[in-house]
Amino acid sequence: MTHKPTYEEVVRSNIEVHTVMADRYHEEPHWRPENQQKVSNRLLDLLPSECGRALDVGCGSGFLTTKLQPLFESVDGVDVTPAMMNRIPEFPNVRITEAFAENLPFPDETFDMVCAYSFLHHLLEPEMALREMHRVLKPGGSIYVDLEPNRAFWSLMTRVSENYSLEELSHLPVVKREIEATLFVERKVETEFGIEQETFRTAEFSKSVTGGFDARTLDELLKSIGFIETDVHLDWFMGQGDLMHKESFEAADAVLSFLQSIRPASDALFKYLWFEGRK
User: Is beta strand 53-57 parallel, antiparallel or unpaired with respect to 74-79?
Assistant: First the structure.
């Protein structure tokens, strides 16, 4: 990318990318049963004291919306891509609105819980969306944001790729696959969907270009916006999926516990981060 895109270019690229990919979006790894159960458990753990109204920002095809629906009296979802929103099942207590995350069409202090899943990295200025999420959240309400790229992991993959070619890493299939998935995913998307690489990188600006989020910096930002009791967690260590399905879930849990016990030395081995907080 030779220049920083404009806000309009990022929005336009996201609409183009997700319109093309909408019919196959349910094939994404986060729709796998083990991850869906993990997310459902987190929602239950983070439920606010009042479960009147929830908001799913960047709702896409409804991954979080469908999980929030039985937990709250009413749920709102916002997104900018009609092709994705059209895939959300209809529920009597769910309302979907085409709107921008940086300018949410709701009054102050409307929601008991505000959520987003695999969304912030699609924005040019994620801070603007976080400030809007804080604005529309009721005092005492909860925020939950998940599956955002961990900058430490992206930086590690960059350093490895600068010192080793993919051919040299052929005997390390997990490492090779992760480098391809983090640094060169736009090549695969162009081959499978015909989406230009530059368009895809623009649509994931805060991942493809800036390399994701630093956990400590993100926590400081959340506190400066006004969120309290914030906690940024790291998630999905390198090779966790392989270990779960080729060995056992118990083996994966054991490795996860060990890596968490040696943080921050192990931070760069976790691909994603998620966070929680209150207002």
Answer: parallel
Q: What local confidence, expressed as pLDDT, does residue 2 receive?
A: 55
pLDDT at 1: 55
Decide: helix, strand or coil at residue 257.
Answer: helix
HEC states along 200-239?
Answer: HHHHCHHHHHCCCECHHHHHHHHHHHCCEEEEEEEEEECC
Cis, peptide link before residue 264, omega less than 30° from 0: yes
Nearest 5 degrees, angle CA 57-CA 62-CA 66?
105
- For the chain, the straight-line distance linking the first and the last C-alpha, in angstroms and rounded, comes to 37
List of the chain residues with pLDDT < 50: none
CB-CB neighbours of 172 under 10 Å: 14
Residues in CB range of 7: below 8 A, 6 or more apart:
102, 124, 125
Amino acid letter, 83:
A
Domain CATH code at residue 118:
3.40.50.150
pLDDT of residue 212: 96
Instruction: Report residue 158 as tokens.
Output: 């960059």
Number of residues assigned to the chain: 279
Contact 150, 169 (CB under 8 A): no
How far is residue 51's CA from residue 141's CA, in Å, rounded to a whole number? 9
Under a CB-based contact definition with an 8 Å cutoff, are residues 154 and 212 in contact?
Answer: yes
Question: How many domains are contained in the chain?
Answer: 1
* Domain span including residue 118: 7-152+202-278
Within a domain: 160: no
pTM of the shown model? 0.94
Does residue 47 form part of some domain?
A: yes
- CA 55 to chain CA centroid, Å, is 15
Q: How, if at all, do strands 94-98 and 74-79 pair?
A: parallel
